[in-house]
Amino acid sequence: MQTLYLGCLALGVIFAVVSVLVGDLIGNALDGVFDLVSFDFLNPTVLAGGITVFGGAGILLTRYSGLEDGAILALSLLIAAFMAVLLFLAVIKPMDKSEVSTGFSMQDLPGRIGEITVPVPSSGYGEVMVKFGAGNSLHTAASFEHQSLPAGSKVVVIEVREGVALVSEFEERKGADV
Q1: pLDDT band with cut points at 50, 70 and 90 for residue 44
Q2: What's the CA dihedral at 30, 32, 37, 43 to 10 degrees?
Q3: pTM, 2 dp
């Protein structure tokens, strides 16, 4: 039985090392292969984690407990199942829903505050930088009120017409009268 436990532990360690080194390449190559049988809890990370815990628990229980082989096997399976469920619920499931993206739609621009990076003449085009999530995006800009806007000035995007952000100078109020 110790050979089984040691094999499972070694398999888990090898899987971890291979995942770190070439995980993205393998993931891209196998993209869509397992979509036919897609159960969330059958995630390769959960399965490999469970097998590794099974092997480790089996080795530890064999060495440090006086239990019989059948009891050690059953207890190792229970520990592995518990840890796999814990791994799935605490790590895999929350990470599945999290995504950091710099993607946006041009319809998201109106109302956003930006900064002029290339001066906008009264009748012509310049450039505005708008912050989206973790990154900045640069857009062709024109003055909504046909005023020239120098580089570095804060603006608000009023609307987007034909792929051009129409901007107006942003005036911050210190205190609002209510």
Answers
A1: confident
A2: 60
A3: 0.52
